[in-house]
Amino acid sequence: MMLKIKTRTEVESITPYVLGKRLNEIQEEFGLKEIRKLSENENIYGCSVKVKNYLANLAEQLHLYPDGSVTDSAAAVSTHLHVKRNQLVFGNGSDEVIRLIAKAYLNYGDEAVMADKTFPRYRSNVFLEGGKPVLVPLVNGVHDLSGMLEAITVKTKMVFVCNPNNPTGTIVGKEELLAFIEQIPSHILVIVDEAYYEYVTTDDYLQTIPLLSKFSNLVILRTFSKIYGLASLRIGYGVMNEEIATQLTKVKDVFNVNQVAQRAAEISIRDVAHVQTCKEKNQIERAFLEKELGKLGLTYFPSEANFMMIDCGCTGDEITNELLRNGIVVRTGSLLGFPNKIRYTIGTRNDNQKFVSILEQKLRQGEYK
């Protein structure tokens, strides 16, 4: 029987997020004994051992509702970042904070400026609230901030800058980003998504937290899903002007962040040593990959994150399938707006050597280049 209930026009126009196959399905399909998932930019070194110790003893708390105010996590983040508690809004991942921003501030027909190839949740949440995403093409994988400024109109309500950008891993320089923020009218929200902030090693990166006191329209997004290794628990947050935080709190669910995630986040942000270790390992392996890919004559966007967008000399689907047959799961660029590239989460040295070896073998066979 055909369903006669019509959905909202905005929902009908949205394509669902494409999820990869489960690891056990891939293993069964290709007859693999071992498989490495390097497709979703997760921290391959995992979470803090202190979190693991906590998780082993949490059964006695599962019957309780979580703290709707996220009190302890907020206190820990507030201390870590030197911001006020009422400047923080927590979500079921930082993507929920994006949804809250759209829900609280967008009226029908309002515009939101963003890169054309960036985190897709900006576009979908703006669209769902009746807003119009205004897409500005990247330039060599980097945000075109001058182009984004030119795209601002009287209808613009917010702009998004993903820094480092997902899926390219690139950043905009600190002077350029500061000049951009300074030129945005104060009635327009400037949302800087720093999901991969902790992985950045360059000095040419703008520290945005100190700018909150100067720019009341600035919102900074961070997450525990990446370097903190808590992707499965879903917790992220935004740092912003107290009045913006108040408005977002009005439209969020009361118990939007579960208690296990809250406690894990509190423990994680205090384990500075674990974060530093993961950052250093990622930096070493990123440099290794850059060197090895250079030897093979393969190009990539310069990354400041824990992943790289690589041109392997063939379609992204081709090399993705070849890697799958060898037990390595990556994200094909055809799903990210780069059909001739793949996005590879930087792995351990063993992962990266195997990855490079497969690429080298295919290049020698002349199948792709």
TrEMBL record:
<feature type="domain" description="Aminotransferase class I/classII large">
    <location>
        <begin position="37"/>
        <end position="357"/>
    </location>
</feature>
<dbReference type="InterPro" id="IPR004839">
    <property type="entry name" value="Aminotransferase_I/II_large"/>
</dbReference>
<keyword id="KW-0808">Transferase</keyword>
<dbReference type="Pfam" id="PF00155">
    <property type="entry name" value="Aminotran_1_2"/>
</dbReference>
<dbReference type="InterPro" id="IPR005861">
    <property type="entry name" value="HisP_aminotrans"/>
</dbReference>
<keyword id="KW-0663">Pyridoxal phosphate</keyword>
<protein>
    <recommendedName>
        <fullName>Histidinol-phosphate aminotransferase</fullName>
        <ecNumber>2.6.1.9</ecNumber>
    </recommendedName>
</protein>
<comment type="pathway">
    <text>Amino-acid biosynthesis; L-histidine biosynthesis; L-histidine from 5-phospho-alpha-D-ribose 1-diphosphate: step 7/9.</text>
</comment>
<feature type="modified residue" description="N6-(pyridoxal phosphate)lysine">
    <location>
        <position position="226"/>
    </location>
</feature>
<dbReference type="GO" id="GO:0004400">
    <property type="term" value="F:histidinol-phosphate transaminase activity"/>
</dbReference>
<dbReference type="InterPro" id="IPR015424">
    <property type="entry name" value="PyrdxlP-dep_Trfase"/>
</dbReference>
<keyword id="KW-0368">Histidine biosynthesis</keyword>
<dbReference type="InterPro" id="IPR015421">
    <property type="entry name" value="PyrdxlP-dep_Trfase_major"/>
</dbReference>
<dbReference type="InterPro" id="IPR050106">
    <property type="entry name" value="HistidinolP_aminotransfase"/>
</dbReference>
<keyword id="KW-0028">Amino-acid biosynthesis</keyword>
<comment type="subunit">
    <text>Homodimer.</text>
</comment>
<comment type="similarity">
    <text>Belongs to the class-II pyridoxal-phosphate-dependent aminotransferase family. Histidinol-phosphate aminotransferase subfamily.</text>
</comment>
<dbReference type="InterPro" id="IPR015422">
    <property type="entry name" value="PyrdxlP-dep_Trfase_small"/>
</dbReference>
<keyword id="KW-0032">Aminotransferase</keyword>
